[in-house]
Design a protein that fits this description.
Length: about 525
């Protein structure tokens, strides 16, 4: 391992971070209520931004300059190290604005208070970059706009990938560029659209930006101001889910906004290569792509089931739903009113269809937005939503989870083994469409599936030491490892992660990183041989 080459790559990523911090810093500057320049500079809502920008640019420029001559020593090992360590370092630098704000707001300068503020800051920013959307904020609307814009912008940057963006800004990042690209882009395939990797990264970011512009424009037509429209676009296109409102998308109570976000959540869960072909006038891949057809089928079946169950069956009683664990439960009268309000949302067939469609897409694409408290829905639907968390979007989308293509190949591999029990000598390659999948690739996908489940079980076991409810412990891990956002019970759609003890938050932070970089990229660094 050429550590100097790794430091060069990480330094370049940190330089990108310094530039990305400028827009939210400008918003924080304009929103500052301080009357003097010195007051603005030390305003806790702004000071964290200039400190983070200064530290990022200083660190990035110094280390990039010192180790520039070592960039040609990058290989596959250095590529994966740069991605994993780069994301960890970016989360640390990116958390500085929140850290200064939390310290000022909490005013607890004890060792525990500082550690708690630091943990919460890293949790929020890692949740942003990994497009998880889990939050420790208890009153989102009380947080300054600069910080809200920054946490939403981290979604947008993390959705397509910070390394991918760095390849656009710094085409000569290093010879391990492809391995960094491979380690960050979601899914088991990393096709190039152009011979040069920087051109491929530019095309992907161009499509991403164009779709983001379209959604922002449509949301503004629906009555959102530019700030809310941009923040919700960042959360939608990155399948992240951070909102500027406590009630998430449900705050706007607009069918138009509701359906616009549904459409773009669906599009964000599709392989961006299909979007690129569509923009060039070639829609044939949409018709023949087996992964897209499977994705569409899963979404439609889940919507039909969800709509039917919500419309034909009343929600469970308040007495039953109140048995679900809550860290800060409502008084019974308030909770009964809440359940009645949720029931009113699905009284009509249209209401049931709207809520089912939104929540199915929010979960299967791992966006995590909410317009309803699905934790008071029938138990069967709650189970279905948890199952959908494992699916995720298509390979090459911004969605998390296992990815549709991996689910397909695992099912085909299992079916092949059943057939081979009766016909041991049969040679039956696994195909997606008419294309056979290499056995090495099949083994990689099956291994990913096993690792994903093993990490879910092990992390859930660890969380039981810090969370008093098994359902909360399990779904908090699934929500973070699959980059969903909300889980059930204590971390449900109207709850948050603020109450979880510090060690539990660090377990979830690590799971977010594992999920976003798809396990192998991170775990390979735990082999001692790779550092020799």
């Amino acid at each position: 391992m050429h550590k100097r080459a790794v430091l060069y790559g990480v330094a370049r990523l940190v330089q990108v971070m310094g530039l990305a911090l400028l827009p939210p810093a400008i918003i924080a500057w304009f929103d500052s209520t301080a009357e003097t320049t010195s007051g603005i500079i030390w305003d806790p809502e702004f000071s964290g931004f200039w400190i983070a920008i200064l530290m990022s640019l200083l660190f990035g420029t110094v280390f990039a300059t010192i180790f520039k001559k070592n960039r040609t020593k990058q290989t596959v090992r250095e590529g994966f190290a740069i991605v994993t360590l780069g994301w960890a370092v970016l989360a640390l630098f990116g958390s500085i604005p929140f850290f200064t704000y939390f310290v000022e707001q909490g005013a607890d300068l004890s060792a525990y208070g500082i550690l708690d503020a630091f943990t919460n800051s890293v949790f929020e920013i890692m949740s942003g970059f990994s497009t998880t959307g889990s939050t420790i904020l208890t009153d989102i609307e009380a947080v300054p706009r600069g910080l809200l814009f920054w946490r939403s912008l981290t979604h947008w940057l993390g959705g397509m990938g910070i390394v991918t963006l760095a390849l656009v800004i710094f085409p000569a990042l290093g010879v391990s560029g492809y391995h960094m690209f491979k380690g960050e882009v979601p899914g088991p395939t990393t096709e190039r659209l152009q011979p040069r990797l920087a051109e491929t990264a530019s095309i992907l970011w161009g499509v991403y930006a164009l779709l983001s512009l379209a959604e922002t424009t449509l949301l503004m037509f629906g009555g959102m101001d530019w700030f809310d429209a941009l923040c919700h676009t960042f959360g939608t296109m990155a399948t992240g889910g951070f909102s500027t409102k406590n009630a998430s998308v449900g705050h706007f109570q607009s069918d138009y906004i509701h359906w616009v976000i549904i459409v773009f959540m669906f599009l964000a869960g599709v392989n961006f290569l299909l979007h690129y072909n569509a923009l060039r006038g070639n829609f044939r891949p949409w018709k023949v792509d087996r992964e897209f057809r499977f994705y569409l089928g899963v979404v439609l079946i889940a919507i039909v089931i969800g709509t039917a169950m919500l419309y034909l069956h009343e929600l469970p009683s308040a007495e039953y739903s109140r048995t679900h664990f809550r860290n800060d439960p409502m008084a019974y009268e308030d909770f009964a009113t809440h359940v009645a309000d949720e029931q009113a949302k699905v009284e009509s067939l249209y209401g049931s269809l709207k809520q089912a469609t939104f929540q199915v897409l929010a979960i299967v694409t791992t966006t995590g937005y909410a317009t309803a408290d699905f934790d008071v829905w029938p138990t069967t639907l709650r189970f279905m939503l948890v199952a959908l968390m494992f699916f995720g979007g298509c390979a090459g989308s911004t969605g998390g989870g296992m990815k549709i293509i991996r689910i397909m190949i695992n099912l085909k591999a299992a079916w092949r083994e059943i057939i081979k029990m009766a016909r041991p000598r049969i040679i039956r390659p696994i195909k997606v469409g008419n294309l056979p999948i290499e056995e090495m690739r099949v083994g990689n996908i099956v291994s990913f599936f096993i690792l994903f489940l093993a990490l879910t079980v092990f992390s859930s076991l660890l969380m039981t030491f810090f969370v008093p409810d098994l359902e909360t412990a399990f779904t908090s891990v699934v929500a973070c490892l699959a980059n969903i956002g909300p889980g059930l019970s204590g971390v449900g759609s109207i709850e948050n992660f603020a109450w979880i003890p510090i060690p539990g938050k660090w377990i979830l932070i690590f799971n977010m990183l594992l999920g976003r970089l798809e396990i192998f990229t991170v775990l390979v660094l735990f082999r001692s041989s790779i550092w020799r």
